[in-house]
Specification:
Blueprint: E1 8-11, H1 17-30, H2 37-48, E2 54-61, E3 64-75, E4 82-91, H3 100-114, E5 119-121, H4 129-138
């Protein structure tokens, strides 16, 4: 059972980078996917560029950042408007079970609805059972399998 806390979800600002960075690194560690600092800096820069279709939302309790979610808006051959891909979602270990993940996903859905998007979707590893319990409450699993081509 989730223990609710007062969580505010806001769009990230440039001054939020230092608070986001430890969570970003923990997220990369969780997926065992280290990235060069240059990629991290480029990614955060894209979040701050209004011309980019990428958005970073932060969940806070008071001044403490508890988690983040990133999204990418894109066209689809199956839609008249946009889709929103929820690319990254992470909640600090100390904040898990408090409804932070749910609030972040709800904020992505609100962002998409406010821009007349037609779909929000995301993927996760099959082993991420804790997150999948939440995801199963908020969305349906269409059964697609993801492939990556080596480049």
């Amino acid at each position: 059972m989730e223990k609710a806390v007062a969580i505010d979800v806001t769009y990230a600002r440039a001054q939020d980078k230092s608070e986001w960075l430890p969570l970003w690194r923990a997220y990369l560690d969780f997926y065992n996917n280290p990235l060069p600092q240059e990629v991290t800096d480029t990614t955060f820069g894209r979040f701050m560029d209004a011309r980019e279709p990428m958005v970073l939302l932060l969940a806070r309790e008071g001044k403490e950042v508890l988690g983040f979610v990133t999204l990418v808006m894109h066209r689809s051959t199956w839609a008249r408007t946009y889709y929103v891909y929820l690319e990254d979602l992470f909640v600090a270990e100390s904040a898990r079970g408090k409804g932070v993940g749910r609030r972040l996903i709800e904020a992505v859905i609100a962002h998409a609805k406010g821009r007349d998007c037609e779909r929000v979707y995301w993927v996760t590893h099959a082993h991420n059972e804790t997150a999948r319990k939440l995801y199963d409450k908020l969305a349906s699993d269409p059964g697609f399998v993801t492939y990556f081509a080596k480049l």
